[in-house]
Amino acid sequence: MAPIEEIAAGLARSATAAAGVPVRSAILHGSVATGDFLPGRSDIDLLLVVGGPLPDTAAGALERLVRNTDPGPASGIDLHVVTAAVASAPSPAPPLELHVGRYDGSSVGVEVERRVAAAPDLPAELSMARADGRAVLGAAPADVLGPVPAAWVRDRGRHWLREWQSRTGDTEDAAHMVLTACRIWLFAVEGRHSAKTPAARWALERDPSLTAIPQALHQYTTDPAAPVSEAGIARVLETVLRDDAV
Q1: Domain residue ranges of the chain, discontinuous segments joined by +
Q2: Which residue intervals define the domain Adenylyltransferase AadA C-terminal in the entry (predicted)?
Q3: Hey, what CATH class is 3-144 in?
Q4: Is 1's pLDDT higher than 60?
């Protein structure tokens, strides 16, 4: 097992112990599960499916766990907690028990959301975990996560593409916006989730003129200080939104 997989599995076991309610499944997804992990740039993505509402004491314990865990070569930790009832029958904006996002080296730092009544980004998270996730403890992803209609994922992707059109000058999130736009595009066209780097290569094959994509790849994989053209970002977003599949 690779070091990052050992760290991620240890985090999953510790989170399960801290949850305060029965955990149906602790699912690693994202780059650690798919083998696309990039040291210093990729997060550890963990989804806990729990048997019932999360006690306040457990939410506090999980937040402390995310804050204090040594993530090793990961750039942060992204923990979502949902009930089994929500996970098995997703809706377009399902309730979320807890989200703790730790983004080392960013201006955000740590983000905590507790008892969110409607979380429209959650269905895409559940869809990715069901497609590519791996259970460290408990049931397999397909046994606890119900299918998410592709239309919901595409709709939320369009939301973010339009949101980012007003933020093309955000240098901190430049690579994230461009590479996630590539992932949104690939899913819309082919119905499959992808990591950032292969999605970017797919998008470049589809339209080699999108110069912001190699710039974003270079920033993401090699040089965090490398620039990404604001006009180029705008063109990527416009191109993806213009595709009839999106």
Answers
A1: 3-144, 150-242
A2: 144-222
A3: alpha beta
A4: no
